[in-house]
UniProtKB/TrEMBL annotation:
PROSITE patterns: BFN. It comes from Corynebacterium kalinowskii. InterPro entries: BFN_sf (IPR036104), Bi_nuclease_dom (IPR003729). Residues 3-130 form the BFN domain. It comes from the Bacteria. GO terms for molecular function: nuclease activity. This is BFN domain-containing protein. The lineage of its organism: Bacteria, Bacillati, Actinomycetota, Actinomycetes, Mycobacteriales.
Length: 181
């Protein structure tokens, strides 16, 4: 079981219901792992991502302080998933792993700026290919130089394009919704 570092691209509302979703990107493969969040966790991540530090410590801040006294958190891992429910762990500086909800693990990772790693099997099974141009088109995420390299065309991978279209349909998003028609 190997772990792969992913890039965190923030929280975005998806679908007609506008459910919050954290987007984690497996850069080497151009794949995105959507991680659905409760509204409270999405709000906490949005606040942290905007650079705002709460005046008083939150529960996550208290956990971080406690972990720092125990040697700190080295990394956050998404270790498994079953039917869309992910399991995370915090890896402490001494190598000990502590079970965590993925939303809490992401918040802690954002507070202390540690790597987010995902089990390769989880990434393979649960992520989808999203071209750089589709990241811009659907999520306003710009990957440096990648959009230009695609030369404005589709990904060139028919199956990957079909997977992305199916994801968007399953989220209740049609091309007409995106065009404002």
């Amino acid at each position: 079981m190997g772990f792969i570092a992913v890039e965190y691209y923030g929280v975005t509302p998806i679908g007609p219901e506008m459910f919050p979703c954290a987007l984690l990107r497996w850069a080497e493969r151009g794949r995105v792992l959507p991680l659905w969040l409760a509204a409270s966790a999405a709000d906490e991540l949005d606040v942290r991502d905007s650079g705002i530090t709460p005046r008083r410590p939150t529960a996550h801040d208290l956990l971080v302080t406690t972990f720092e006294q125990m040697g700190g958190v080295a990394e956050v891992r998404l270790i498994s998933q079953h039917r869309g429910v992910f399991i995370a762990s915090l890896v402490l500086g001494n190598g000990e792993e502590i079970d965590a909800r993925p939303s809490d693990a992401l918040i802690i990772a954002r507070i202390i700026d540690v790597p987010i790693l995902v089990d390769e099997d989880v990434l393979t099974d649960s992520s989808i290919f999203v071209s750089a141009s589709d990241l811009v088109r659907y999520f306003d995420i710009v990957i440096e130089d990648a959009v230009a390299n695609e030369a404005g065309s589709a990904s060139g991978d028919v199956q990957a394009d079909a997977d992305f279209e199916e994801l968007m349909r399953s989220l209740g998003v049609s091309e007409d919704d995106l065009r404002g028609e």
